[in-house]
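Bug: token stream looks shifted between consecutive jobs. Job 1:
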Amino acid sequence: MTGSKRKNKNKAILYIAILFPLLLLLFSLCLGTLRVSLKEVLEILLARISGWPSDLLTTPAANIILNIRLPRVLLALLAGAAFSVSGASLQSLFRNPLVNEYILGVSFGAGFGGAASLVLFSRNFPPQVLAFACGLLAVVLVLVISEGARNTLVAVLLTGIIVSALFQALLSTLEFIASPYALQALFFWLLGSFSQATWPDLAWSAPLILVGLVFLLKLGWRINVLSLSDDEARSLGLAVKRERILIICLATLVTSAVVAIAGIIGWVGLIVPHAVRGLVGSDNRLVLPVSAGLGASLMLLADDLIRTLLPFEFPVGILTSLVGIPFFLYLISRARTSWS
């Protein structure tokens, strides 16, 4: 494929990655126990946004769409984008295709913080704050413990596994001391679900996710440089340690903000970047935005399947694991070139 054809192909993929989640959002608002036509959905949304009078705003359908489905759909889109961009950034940063937010302890650290808010404070303390604090603590522990190792990248990965195990143990401790009611809520939350999404939750988390995503997307060219050797990155004028810490903190921020209200959802941040690199190559200026769009779309499609095909609420975290593991094995078996 010539350079111009590849460029046009990548540009088309980028446009599709941006537009498809928006179209899928409208389609998803129509789905559920109460089916609503696309025309009614558009009228309800336009009336609410513009303030125009509409009889539909007083109907049960409007209440369901605006207060139940819309926050759930938005959270699913934000979660998919956050996990995918975070995973793609960390994989390039550590030059390892197996790295994701789980490996560095971010997810389980943030999960422990959110669980502590639920069990110890009954959500009186914002779970987003504790989730980010504990997620950041996990990353700090990983970086501090691995500091000075001869092979820093390997040390970081091994330390991340240990720190993840530590926070998993702390999570188990919370489950042991929780009351029966809190334990039931905690157990369902840990499996990963968007069913409890509310506007107050999004008011806390959405700004954090969006700010983190915007900065990560703008840092795509820096992540490209950091994916080179440290000496090469320094020769190009980058403060390697500072930039690496900044990107890790941003990845921690977006992951923690999602985990705080949706629970622990795996495999998205590992699989989506692999699929995107197979489509557009390894340039993070393109990989990150396409990962955001594809991850958001896949997460929303998974939630739509749960809402339409099953008569009960099934945790989306289980579904992503069931689909993710064989898909990842398929990617490995189909790989023809080494990851770079």
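Job 2, same session, no restart:
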Amino acid sequence: MNKFSFILHPHTQQDYVERFPVIGYLPKFVFKGVTRVLPPFKVSGIKGIQSSFAQAEGEFICCPLLAEQLRELPPELVLNKIIKAVKLAKRNGAKLVGLGTFASVISEGGVRVAQEADMPVTTGDSYNVFMALEGLKEVAKWMELDGAGTNVVVLGATSSLGSVCARILAKENKYLTLVASERSKLEKLATQILYETGLAVKITVNIKEALRKADIVVVVTSLADVVIEPQDLKSGAVIYDFARPRNIALKAVARREDILVIEEILVDVPGKPEFNFDFGFPPGQCSACWAEVIILTLEKKYESFSLGREVTFSQVKEIGALAQKHGFKLAGLKSLTRGEIEEIKENVSGK
């Protein structure tokens, strides 16, 4: 059987309490001391994944540190925990390991983990890009933003993920604005896009100016000094947040009832998958980040596919094709139903 593992971590002490109730009685400082010495452990087995070409099974492995500890503790200590989790997955028979968001960030996009654990790992970034843009196209239709005059803005366009998103969006949109802090890098990317697609994109270092005219915003930066205020965006705007950790400013934007903020795209996994752990997703669905390791396992492509901080256009195209081959499909949006989207649409001024 083709086997994979995915490394995850608890966000809060409450995540432990749901599995180990006694932990709820520990003071937080004691609990955090326990997690520092607690070894990685298996959370659940994953079964029932089957495409027209192959079957796969896997497991979730927990790196026991809380999200705040991953940010606060010495990087080497955190990295060592992640490496131990990957080595556990290897001992349990995994041929490929997927890294969660913080595990990827701490380990330089998985590079050091792959090297020190001597195990192929993937961050999920390539399929996350593919599905994010597929999801945006679908949501744009729901919000009636799929017309020729739709203005798309990429915030953080010169980053690795940002430039790939921009190059893909340029093939499908007439009006595209790229935003970043360095004009020289923007000019270089704009020239590349003009050569590849014939589209003359707009570039600017003025975030607020770009946002005021944006129908769709792709956020690929989590810089602390990037502030997006609710009043910066036009009524009916759709925003996808790639930033990890999440761009905190968008939490305020999400409170506007006429703006749609997408946090994550959900994917239908082929077969009758049983994840045996409640992540709050509908049955048979997972995030695109998780899905990448499953797709590669079904394909028997046991290699560090999305590794490091660079994601290429060809990687996104390849993982999208493999996903379609094995029957992965867009399922919906995390924390947003079609009914809620319709309510946002009704609140758009001028409708």
